[in-house]
Amino acid sequence: MFRVQRAFTQLEGRAHGPGALARAADLDDSTVYRILQSGVHQGIFVREGRGLYRLGSAAPQLGLKALAHSPAPEAAHALLEALRRATGGLAFLYLLAPFGGAHRQCVDMAVGDSDLTELGMTPRAVQTVEHSLRVGAAGRAILAYLPETIQSEVLDRPVPTEAGPGAYQDDVRLLASLARIRARGYALGHEECAAGWNECAAPVTWDGLVMGSVLVMKPKQVMTRCPVTVIEAVERTASALADLGRGRPAGPDGDDSRTK
């Protein structure tokens, strides 16, 4: 059952026939057909006609159940605070919010004494407003690892009017930036979300699936070019958050306790 579910995530498009799913799952057609029929009755799969199936509502319920048992917020916040101290910037944690279209939503932040007015927003606005995945290093760090069908849906939407002057307006350049992110493992942003602010972000993945991203923002005059030390700190934090999601606790200062 799980091999067939995973096959849906490996194939482009939302609906597939038993044959394509069998090849992706490395199972024989008859076995996949029986699994699909059983899954339809359980709500795991939905029959769309003409021999095609898509994932049903019971599939994301498994993911939501896993998120419900994710680490305590205090552990993730400690990692953000450690990142803020290490970089001297503002640190944010975003999670993918797929319902109603793919967005990113800020679920926590470590901003020290800042009230975020320099970004033209309040902490409440940052945490309650969903943001486009096509704008900002945090959004592109997530978008780079999503299926092409979701990427196309995101690119079909206009650039938000509140985006900064450095936001990618051209889809060709945006797609090229996603390829660079996949090659490097992190994203850099220059005045994409707010004028005068540059960014560095890395994806947070659980078992090969992108769940969100961690971001550091610093004033442009302080971080004209992102130093290696900031990139490495962001990547370490993203890795530690991924370990938390897999049930591997990090140390009290944000370091992976397994390395101590």
Automatic annotation (TrEMBL):
- Looking at the record's lineage, which domain of life comes first? Bacteria
Q: Give the IclR-ED domain ranges.
A: 58-250
Keyword set for this entry? Transcription, Transcription regulation
Supply the Gene3D superfamilies for this chain: 3.30.450.40, Winged helix-like DNA-binding domain superfamily/Winged helix DNA-binding domain
List, alphabetically, the InterPro entries matched: GAF-like_dom_sf (IPR029016), HTH_MetabolicPath_Reg (IPR050707), Tscrpt_reg_IclR_C (IPR014757), WH-like_DNA-bd_sf (IPR036388), WH_DNA-bd_sf (IPR036390)
**Database matches in PANTHER family:** HELIX-TURN-HELIX TRANSCRIPTIONAL REGULATOR, ICLR FAMILY, HTH-TYPE TRANSCRIPTIONAL REGULATOR RV1719
Name the UniProt record assigns to this protein? IclR-ED domain-containing protein
